[in-house]
Amino acid sequence: MSVPAEPPDQPETETTVTPLLPGLESHPHARAILTPALAPGATPSHAYLFHGPAGTGKRTVARAFAAALLGEGARTPGTVAERVARDSHPDLTWVRPSGAAEMLVADIEQPVVAAATHTPFESARRVFVIEAVETMNDQTANRMLKILEEPPSFTHLVLLADRREDVLATIASRCQPVRFDPLAPALLAARMDGVDGDRAQACARLAMGDAGLAQRLASAEGQALRARAEEFVRSTLAGSTASRPWLGLLEAAKTAGAQAGERTQEQLERELEFVPSKERKRYEREAAEARRRGERRVRTQTLGLSLRLAELWLRDLMCVSEGAGELVHAVDRRPELESDADGCDALALRSGIELVADTRLSLSLNVSEELALEALAYRLQATLASEAVAA
């Protein structure tokens, strides 16, 4: 009886595992989209829309993703990530809005739309990362559509936005969406070394998943912002708006803008050393304009944050007044919240939240900040008093 021959040994197949990009550990949806795109033989999309709350790591992942795209087939792949980290790779363009409240056509016209058609300098691809695409107006978006609709095969665009809903539909529909989920408050609090437990928890909850904002709120500047926002609300509850509590919010915003301008000026002075003398006047003029826009942008953002904190204080008061104290964000201010909530009406507080939210959104419309805050203070005081009496 013959014994069947042993089947020949099958060659072992080598399984290539695509490494996980830094920052994707807490974002399963983003991991599911981006990891396969980097697998050997895969064809990445020409455009991605990274969307999710600020501070969730979109920029970190975008930089790592860009490095991975540019590293494929590079002559010296070991240096790509380091140069991408320093913004010195010739095939990476990183765009940030220069307008006070929106992205200007000039921000993308030459840096993106024109440059995207040029062949790469040393990589097989060109990568363009564009921040805050939700701030594009119709004119800027129309220019952007030109490259989104007919992109060269070597061009890849990574667009960043805090909210997908705020991105113009014509832009969002032409991109592969990549969702970044808010980070859990417990995770944010655990990252705050040297911050006591209740304050860390409060800052993490108030940040609504934004890691950078949580750290800022835990700082001395953040604590001052919180105090001024709370004082603004508490003065309206006490009927003492004659003390003009909005001036503290304006002063904090002005200081933040001035500090941003100083940082820009320091950078300008360093860069001027490398600018040819015949181009210095033009460079200084453009830099001065960029500084003014930057100061305005930071001032508006800081004022918006102050109003957001005021809005959340009213929200916490409503939770306490409704017997849902476990939902409070400012857990380090429970005594103050319980004191302020005594006698407050939930409908009055809800109306107050809407008033603050409307004022915060109006800041992007180039309104007079002082008049807007003054009007808010008196309207808030009147609303809370009238609703409380009616109740």
Attribute tags:
about 400 residues; alpha/beta; Rossmann fold; Zinc Finger, Delta Prime, domain 3; about 55% helix; disordered C terminus
Description:
Among the domains are: 28-181, P-loop containing nucleotide triphosphate hydrolases (Rossmann fold, 3-Layer(aba) Sandwich), CATH 3.40.50.300; 219-249 and 306-390, Up-down Bundle (Zinc Finger, Delta Prime, domain 3), CATH 1.20.272. The model is unreliable at 10-15 and 387-391 (pLDDT under 50). The chain is of the alpha/beta class. The chain has 15 helices and 5 strands. It has a 5-stranded parallel β-sheet with strand order 2-3-4-1-5, sandwiched between helices.
Largest sheet, described in full?
5 strands, parallel
Please write the string of helix (H) and strand (E) elements.
HEHHEHEHEHEHHHHHHHHH
Largest beta sheet: what is the strand line-up? 2-3-4-1-5
Identify low-pLDDT runs. Answer: 10-15, 387-391
C-alpha geometry? globular
Please give the share of residues in helix.
55-70%
User: According to CATH, what is the class of the domain at 28-181?
Assistant: Alpha Beta
* Fraction of residues in β-strands: 5-15%
CATH fold label of the domain at 28-181: Rossmann fold
CATH architecture of the domain at 28-181: 3-Layer(aba) Sandwich
Kindly report the name of the CATH homologous superfamily of the domain at 28-181.
P-loop containing nucleotide triphosphate hydrolases
